[in-house]
Each structure stands twice: as C-alpha cells, then as structure tokens.
Amino acid sequence: MLAKIHITLKKDVLDPQGKVIANSLSDLGFDGIQSVRQGKYIEILLEGDDKDAANSKLNQMCEKLLANLVIEDYSVEID
Amino acid sequence: MKSHVIVFPGSNCDRDVAVAIESISGSAPEMVWHKNTSIAESDLIVVPGGFSYGDYLRCGAIASTSPVINEVIKKAKAGVPVIGICNGFQILIETSLLDGALIRNNSLSFICKDIYIKPENTSSIFTKNNIVAKMPIAHNEGNYFASTDTIKKIKDHDQIAFKYCDINGVVSEESNPNGSLDNIAGILNDKKNVLGLMPHPERAVELSLGSDDGKHIFEGVLK
Questions:
Q1: Residues of B tagged active-site
Q2: Could you tell me if A13 lies within 8 Å of chain B, comparing CB atoms?
Q3: First-to-final CA distance of chain B
C-alpha cells in the first residue's frame, strides 16, 4: 500500500515562503492568486493490505514525528 | 562540577560550549555521543547548536528521537539544569520539554549577527545574573511561535527567559531580528530548570570574541 501524507502549516501560522511564492507567481503574470500555502509531501510504502490498521499507524507516525502539531496540520491518504 | 554536552551528527557548537564551560568552571564537560543511553550524575547538560541530522524533516525533529534524548528528558524532569542553544533549543522544543515552535525567520534569510537580549524572568538560575547582554545569533529557523493559549500560559508562569532588545534594553519591533512572537529569544520550562535560547552565549565568553556577556548565563549554574 502506498500512503500519501500532506503536511501544511496551520492557518494561523505565518507562511513567509508561501507569500514569496505568491509574489513570484504574480510577477510571472499569473493573476487571481488569493494566497499560497506551501508544505511537505511524504510517501510511505507499507507492507500488507489492512487499510484501517495502516491508517491508525500512519496517524501515530504523523503525531510522533512527521508533523509538529504546534504549527502543522496533516492529512493521510492510502492508495 | 560535572557537566555534559550532547553531541549529534551535525552538531557544530559542541566544542565552543566545552571551551566556555571549562573556562568558567575550571573543569571540562564530558562529551556525550547521541547513541549513549545514559548520562552520569550531572550539574548541567547542554544541548548545543548545529545542524543535527542535517535539519532533515524539521530542525531538531530527528535529534528529538535519538537514544540519548530520553535520558536528557529524564534528567530534566528530575530537576537537572538543561540548556538548549540554537539547534539545541529547536531539539528541546521538539521533545516538548519546552513549549511552542521555532519557524522560519520572517525575512526568509539565515541571520548571523550580534544582537542584544535582556532577561524577562530574573529568578531562574540562568537569568538571575543577567543584564542586557550582547551575543551572536546564527539561524534560519529562530522565529518563536506559540498558540495564544500557550503564550498566555508561558506569561502566567513567568517562563519567558529572554527578549530581543536594543543596546539600551528597549524591546521593540526594530530589535526583533527574526519575527519572534513578543520578541522572545529564550524560554524556560515551568520548573525553570530547562532553558532554550536561540542566541549563542558560548560564542560570547571572551572580550576578544566581541563580548563576554554570554558568561552570565552559564555562571548562574556553574558557580
């Protein structure tokens, strides 16, 4: 099974990199951008096919290491 | 006086801390490799600056899961004084010994320059000798952040150790180098035996280095 994890900064945490990306996109002529938030994407290849067990394990991984819950939110998707 | 300096792959201020401790206390600290699972009886543990584990994932995140860290947490909870400097502060935050988070500088630049800090809490062993002190910062992720609830808790418990200020001790937006909330440069745990700070006191222990103000932070523990 392939797990796809997205980690993004929480909404109330300033994302200066996102702001700079938004400015650069505007400079390139892409209009209509309201805001940009950037983050991390992590793929984890797992053994077995028990999606519920994997989901619970992946949530623990995010909470213990992959995300810092003080500043980040995460989402887990399993293919 | 027995002290210990933790060494991770990528630590680069461990020797500076050792020199500072030896010059202040007269005895050299024991250097403790990150794979060790025990630390002998100690009067001070320092988690030094650097780029532990290459800053992979988040600064300090991987180091916070290394074997020696469980021992640091155990000692800290037993009341042993612990100082985390720069990356060491980031590591202590990742272990949850200290509250909040350290995010990218608001300028998006690595900042390396002398700054001034002043103590907010004047009762802890680390801050009681302090005055407005000059020392360098050298970091990319030193922008202190915490939720509104956490900031309230930190203030209510007198856990702000140092704030960035100017040479006269005035705390203002101009004296904030990295965007830290409330100009926070260092914080304490609620028992006040764990200090984390972004500035480098170990790089300011001799006048030939530009300042010896950093001594005060160690002297409270070592003397």
A1: 86, 200, 202
A2: yes
A3: 9
Spans of all domains in chain A: 2-78
Report the CATH superfamily, name and number, of domain A2-78.
Phosphoribosylformylglycinamidine synthase subunit PurS (3.30.1280.10)
- Looking at domain B3-222, which of 3.40.50.880, 3.30.980.10, 1.20.120.1560, 2.60.40.10 is its CATH number? 3.40.50.880
At A54, which helix (H) or strand (E)? helix A51-61
pLDDT above 90 coverage of chain B, percent: 95
Which pLDDT band, with edges at 50, 70 and 90, does B123 fall under?
confident
At residue A53, does pLDDT exceed 90? yes
Residues from chain A contacting residue B57 (CB–CB below 8 Å): 65-66
B129-171 per-position pLDDT tens digit: 778 999 999 999 999 999 999 999 999 999 999 999 999 999 9
Q: How far apart are the C-alpha atoms of B137 and B164, rounded to whole Å?
A: 11
Task: Measure A68 CA to nearest chain B CA, in Å.
Answer: 8
Residue B29's pLDDT band (cuts 50, 70, 90): very high
Q: Report the pLDDT averaged over residues B91-112.
A: 96
- Tell me whether residues A14 and B101 touch, CB distance under 8 A: no
What's this model's pTM, rounded to 2 decimal places? Answer: 0.93
